[in-house]
Design brief:
Layout lengths: L10 E3 L2 E3 L31 H20 L2 H21 L1 H7 L2 H24 L19 H11 L1 H17 L2 H11 L10 H13 L13 H5 L5 H19 L3 H10 L3 H8 L27 H11 L7 H11 L2 H4 L6 H24 L6 H7 L15 H8 L2 H7 L2 H11 L2 H14 L5 H16 L8 H17 L6 H5 L4 H13 L4 H13 L4 H12 L10 H4 L9 H16 L5 H16 L3 H9 L15 H17 L1
Antiparallel strand pairs: 1-2
Helix pairs in contact: 1-2, 2-4, 3-4, 4-6, 4-20, 5-16, 6-16, 10-11, 10-14, 11-12, 13-14, 14-16, 20-21, 21-23, 22-23, 25-27, 27-29, 29-30, 30-31, 30-32
């Protein structure tokens, strides 16, 4: 972290990112035209909302604040909060956009911002899971409860921790306002009751008294429809389908308690008990001291291993309803039962991750309680057809999704943000950088949200010393593209700050190219001062800028009369550009170096060749009239004498 950043207090005032460089700011004109060949070929920039414009500045502010405090956890959280604020502001303007006919464009912008927000939320949950593995943990105590055994393995298994974090993230982003509204609307169809299949029960009672023929079941066992091969009353059938779908939707967002409560309130106590059976066994009384008088309730299912085996078989029983099989498949980790109810790529990923977690937990408990299993149970569980032999592997989950999903899900999985999220989950940072560059090179329309998120993820990894895991050239290209993007959006106040994030060898080149895009000298002076604040090598930047302004010499040796002509020609735009570069050299170089004098001699030769004597006079005016060898800093004094002699010869000629 640069020393100057310790004194920076970044603030947002009236929507602009400000650094306390000086008490007043130089007035700058707005007649700026970007040079499309300076940093990178220009892309088509889509219109962005006012709130999204603010987001660029909030990102830079949060990054600068984190460099001062070194609290990178808060920085990632601030990124998520900033995206959420931006989404909320954009949604507020939705009715106005509807009246002005810009609703489709604003809807796309809001959706993109939501994806960016969700990506930050993923990184906030997952970034520490792979780095906090405890290697010094003792072995788990024999006889420990299932919950303690699994918690111990979570500390040792970074992939399982990552899976839990991703599962929680997928549940969180699914539980948006619209999803909650849909669930509430569906729940209004269900009436609270003490028993399930109320209409069927009423018909049985009526038909028994009236001796009517009965096409329905004759008992209220929850599996009576399969045992008797009879059906329910149509109303009860529809209510059960609705209930199962609602329960699954609640499980999809991790609302297990709500799912059990709604089962109890509608009379489906057997389904509530089935959901409770998935809990890990734990008896707190076993771990309390003898002096403790409080008796705690026993939690979970002590026979969970055998129960999972039963659920594994039921989940593929085609006599059961679709969502009932999906619920059983989720509880036991059988992906084949979940796939038919998945509608989006996020649903597919959640299903695979959830099944992976359940399978890992099942395997952990089998290993822990292997001595307690009977020979028959061992043979059934550990056989070739057992769960363990078809267990999912975390690194291969994404490949399995692509191999077995429909075309529209595959297309969704290959979207830029989804691929970036994939590599963040797998911690494959080299492929992450390659995929980002691939999107930037192939898309004609530059996605501001994608570039903004990608750049700051790369900055985070670079600042956290993960550079050994990726190619630094890719990082430089991504950050350089973002700098060019800021220039095109006229966010020039942010450019110097992001240039300072580049490696030192690249800062001067990009700074010179940025200065070359500025047409006003006051702008250049202002951003040169800003560059000093961020410890950018301004001397080298100015020398590169001057070198870029040089033009090919077209001296005509046969036209001596033209050379000594007294008729001075007018200066053009390129001439003034070279003079401006010379002015910046003489003003901002830390010492009066030989390079400035040589550049002055070179452009004076051009002006003399073109009979532009006014240009020579202006160039000479930038140096003190009494300049001598002692005021020039150079390693080769003999060479500097020749350059000084040439410079004074121009003065004598004029």
């Amino acid at each position: 972290m640069s020393e100057s950043m310790m004194n920076v207090e970044s603030t947002v005032i009236d929507g602009s990112f400000c650094q306390p460089l000086e008490s007043t700011r130089l007035t700058r004109t707005s007649n700026w035209s970007p040079n499309e060949t300076t940093i990178r070929s220009s892309k088509n920039i889509p219109c962005i909302t006012k709130s999204e414009q603010q987001l660029y500045k909030l990102y830079a502010q949060a990054l600068a604040d984190s460099e001062v405090t070194q609290d990178w956890s808060s920085w990632v959280e601030m990124m998520t909060i900033n995206c959420q604020k931006c989404c909320s502001e954009a949604e507020i303007s939705h009715p106005i956009a509807f009246r002005t006919g810009r609703q489709p464009q604003l809807s796309r912008n809001i959706r993109t911002l939501q994806i960016e927000r969700d990506s930050w939320l993923l990184w906030n949950r997952a970034r520490d899971t792979l780095n906090n593995t405890r290697q010094d943990l003792p072995e788990v105590i024999p006889g420990s409860s299932d919950r303690l055994i699994v918690e111990h393995h979570l500390l040792n298994n970074p992939q399982l921790r990552m899976a839990k974090a991703v599962q929680g993230w997928l549940q969180t982003i699914k539980l948006d306002e619209r999803y909650q509204t849909d669930i509430k609307m569906a729940m209004t169809k269900l009436e609270p009751k003490r028993i399930y299949w109320e209409k069927t029960c009423h018909f049985l009672k009526s038909s028994y008294n009236a001796n009517l023929p009965n096409p329905y079941i004759t008992s209220l066992d929850f599996d009576a429809t399969h045992k008797q091969k009879r059906r329910l009353c149509d109303t009860d059938e529809q209510e059960e389908n609705d209930l199962l779908q609602i329960v699954f939707n609640l499980l999809r967002v991790g609302e297990y308690s709500k799912a059990k409560n709604i089962c109890k309130s509608t009379g489906y106590h057997w389904l509530a008990a089935l959901l409770s059976a998935n809990e890990l066994y734990h008896d707190e009384n076993y771990y309390c001291s003898e002096t403790n008088d409080i008796i705690y309730p026993v939690e979970g299912n002590k026979k969970r291993i055998q129960w999972i085996e039963s659920m594994y078989e039921l989940s593929m029983d085609m006599r059961l309803k679709l969502y009932e099989r999906a619920i059983y498949g989720l509880l036991c980790g059988r992906i084949e039962a979940l796939i038919p109810v998945c509608k989006t790529y996020a649903d597919y990923l959640w299903a695979y991750i959830s099944c992976y977690i359940e399978q890992e937990i099942h395997h952990i408990l089998i290993c822990a309680h292997q001595n307690e299993l009977t020979d028959i149970e061992k043979h059934r569980i550990l056989s070739d057809n057992g769960i363990r032999n078809r267990q999912l592997k975390m690194p291969l989950i994404f490949d399995e999704i692509l191999a077995g999903c429909p075309t529209h899900i595959r297309d969704e999985a290959l979207l830029p943000f989804n691929l970036i999220q994939k590599y963040l989950i797998l911690a494959d940072y080299d492929r992450l950088f390659h995929s980002i560059l691939s999107f930037l090179h192939t898309n004609n329309e530059l996605n501001g949200s994608l570039l903004r998120f990608s750049t700051h993820i790369c900055l985070f990894l670079y600042e956290q010393d993960h550079s050994e895991k990726f190619n630094q050239k890719n990082f430089i290209e991504i950050l350089t593209t973002y700098i060019h993007h800021l220039i095109e959006l006229e966010f020039k106040d942010l450019v110097c700050y992001y240039i300072s994030k580049l490696p030192l060898d690249n800062q001067s080149t990009i700074m010179a190219k940025f200065l070359d895009t500025l047409s006003n000298r006051q702008d250049k002076e202002y951003y040169l001062k800003q560059g000093f604040t961020y410890k950018i090598d301004i001397d080298t930047s100015l020398l590169i800028l001057a070198a870029n302004q040089r033009r090919d010499q077209t001296f005509d040796k046969d036209n001596n009369e033209e050379i000594i002509s007294t008729n001075s020609k007018n200066l053009n735009e390129n001439d003034y550009k070279q003079l401006e570069a010379l002015k910046l050299l003489t003003t901002f170089l830390s010492t009066q170096t030989l390079d400035a004098l040589r550049f002055a001699n070179q452009i004076c030769r051009y002006f003399l060749n073109d009979s532009k004597y006014e240009g020579i006079r202006i160039a000479l005016s930038y140096f003190p009239h009494d300049i001598d060898i002692h005021t020039i800093e150079a390693n080769n004094r003999e060479q500097s004498v020749d350059d000084l002699r040439e410079f004074k010869a121009f003065g004598a000629y004029i």
